[in-house]
Amino acid sequence: MKELIETIVKPLVDFPEDVQVDVLEEDHRVTYQLSVNKNDMGKVIGKQGRVAKAIRTVVYAAGSSQQKKIFLEISE
């Protein structure tokens, strides 16, 4: 899943080397924390959050087979 997020986000940003995905696993949830360069935040979030919503939709669909709830957080 980490590779999927990186594959989606890196072509969108100007600084792909700054894209980092951290994974926090708990009992019933997995949280992926996506951090990008602060100059790329607008590109990852998109107008009215459309790009971020699309990324989350793909990630949630890919993880629907898991028994854990998946969350994606975007930070600088």
Low-confidence runs = none
Distance between the termini: 20 Å
CATH class assignment: Alpha Beta
Total discrete domains: 1
Largest sheet: 3 strands, mixed
- Helix and strand composition category: alpha+beta
User: What is the general shape?
Assistant: globular
Number of strands: 3
Strand order of the largest sheet: 1-2-3
Tell me what the structure shows.
The protein has 76 residues and is an alpha+beta fold. The chain has a single domain, classed as K homology (KH) domain (GMP Synthetase, Chain A, domain 3), CATH 3.30.300.20. 34% of the residues lie in helices and 26% in strands. The chain contains three helices and three strands, in the order αββααβ. It has helices spanning 2-9, 41-45, 50-62, and strands spanning 20-25, 29-35, 69-75. A three-stranded mixed β-sheet has the order 1-2-3. The protein is globular. The two termini are 20 Å apart. The model has no long low-confidence stretch (mean pLDDT 93). GO terms for molecular function: RNA binding. Keywords: Cell shape, Cell wall biogenesis/degradation, Chaperone, Cytoplasm, RNA-binding. It holds the Pfam family KH_KhpA-B. Forms a complex with KhpB. This is RNA-binding protein KhpA.
